[in-house]
Amino acid sequence: MAMEARDIERLIRDAFPQASITITDLAGDGNHYAAEVIDESFRGLNRVQQQRAVYAALKGKMDGAHGELHALALTTKAPE
User: Fold this and answer.
1) How many CA atoms within 13 Å lie on the side-chain side of 47?
2) I need a labelling partner for 78 at 20 to 30 A (CA). Which of 22, 50, 57, 67 fits?
3) Residue 12 CB: number of other CB atoms within 10 A?
4) Taking the model in full, what pTM does it have?
5) Over the stretch 18-51, which tens digit does the pLDDT of each residue have?
6) How does strand 32-38 pair with strand 20-25?
7) In this structure, are residues 27 and 5 in contact, taking their beta carbons and an 8 Å threshold?
8) C-alpha–C-alpha distance, residues 42 and 29, integer Å
9) In what order do the strands lie in the sheet with 71-77?
10) Helix axes 5-15, 47-57, angle to 10 degrees
C-alpha cells in the first residue's frame, strides 16, 4: 500500500514540529519519495544520527518488504 506525501510529512512533523519539511514524490507512484528536513534539533548531530531520528519518526512505515513506504531519499540538516 502506497503512502501519501502529506502522511509522510505529518509523521515527521509530529516529531519535529518546527522543522522545514519538503516531500517530493519522485516517481508519481506513491512509493518513492525524497524528503528534506531542516531542524534546529539536528545541530551537533552527524548525518547518520539526524537520519535515524527521522526514520524513527516514520514509526515503522518503511520496515520490511511490506512497509507502506518503499523508498525515501533523505536529506537532513540544521538551519544555516
Assistant:
1) 4
2) 67
3) 22
4) 0.89
5) 999 999 999 888 888 999 999 999 999 999 999 9
6) antiparallel
7) no
8) 30
9) 20-25, 32-38, 71-77
10) 110
Q: Which amino acid is at 25?
A: D
Q: Residues 24, 58, 33, CA angle at the centre, nearest 5°? A: 20
Residue type (1 letter), 57? A
Sorted by where each starts, the structural domains of the chain and their CATH numbers stand as 5-77 (3.30.300.90)
Cell readout for 46 is 552527524
Q: What's the one-letter identity of residue 8?
A: I
Rounded distance, CA 8 to CA 23, Å? 8
